[in-house]
Amino acid sequence: MTSSASGRTEPYGTFRTDPSEFVNQRVLVIGKGNSAFETADSLVATAAVIHVAGPHSLRLAWRTHFVGHLRAVNNNFLDTYQLKSQNAVLDGDVRRIERQADGSYLVTVSFVRADEVTKDIPYDRVIVCTGFRIDASIFSDGCRPDLTVNDRFPALTPAYESVNVPDLYFAGTVTQSRDFKRGTSGFIHGFRYGVRALHRVLESRYHDARWPGRDLPADPEALAAAVLERVNRSSALWQQFGLLGDVIVLDGHGGARYLEELPVDLEGPPIGDGGHFTITLEYGPEHDKIDPFDVGVGRIRQNDAERAAEGHYLHPVVRHHRAGAPPVVHHVTENLENEWTSQETHVEPLRAFFARQAASVPA
């Protein structure tokens, strides 16, 4: 959107939401996320025409598994478009917005799917639903954090610390740069666990507090039981998939300590430099390219432990990390009800993995 629109459109955060104010009006909603479609849905009963515009392809949350993409609860508007109710989704860039003498708008849209065809379209209202960016002006030059993702968020280490300003930490939705457009750090049900991990990082670094965990023997059966107990009940690993993970730290003397909910790429204490295992919940590779409702797309059998790595849905992944070597990976096969309790399919293959890894470690 060009600067000519500044101050002349209505931002999502402040526009008047009473549908009766939009009776028989032509409305443009800029953006293709949940806020845009939520707004469009709310006006269907009163507005004459509603267009939702943006240059990128529409992505549905049920396919990508990213809750920031369009949720089903907000996509009723798509029916009014495809079933010809005079509403539409415009795939294009908004090049210019001009306020007319009568208070209406003339909007120039460049369509990306029609060889850059440009069209001027009249509207009575223009509502902007294009997200937010951090206001870095509150920081002085000596402590201004580096930004990332088109300068929308602070660039962070795995400990939620600014990459360029030591001892400056962030919590909440601004931490979504850590898993942008793929995880849940932009939402309360995700970043609440990131906040807890940050609290533990701060306690560890500044108050010499030990990361919460428990001791257990490093034998394969005990390790497998501990892992499956956690993945069957942990909401943090479920919500912060691939970002937070449990860690089993080996002491080299037949013992281990099971630590819960660490950033998976955190280095140093409390993990240390010795061998350890990480436990995460993850989707399969290219899971967002699979239509979950296409029955013609095959899936592995739920009891096929040998092909567990081919699973597209959320499932446990255990990695053995050793200095100077790539991690050795074990996938626990996906399960329709997310219950990894089968002795044959889940427990025994994981126990055997731990046994193999123990045998590979030099005495």
Keywords:
363 residues; alpha/beta; FAD/NAD(P)-binding domain; 7-stranded mixed sheet; 7 helices; globular; disordered N terminus
Q: Give helix % range.
A: 10-25%
Report low-confidence residues grouped into runs of 5 or more.
Answer: 1-7
* Residue share in β-strands: 15-25%
Number of helices: 7
Mean pLDDT: 92
How does this model look, in words?
There is one protein chain. The protein is of the alpha/beta class. The chain has three domains: 3-128, 3-Layer(bba) Sandwich (FAD/NAD(P)-binding domain); 136-207, no CATH class; 213-360, no CATH class. The protein is 21% helix and 25% strand. It has seven helices and 15 strands. The chain starts with 9 loop residues before the first strand and ends with a helix.
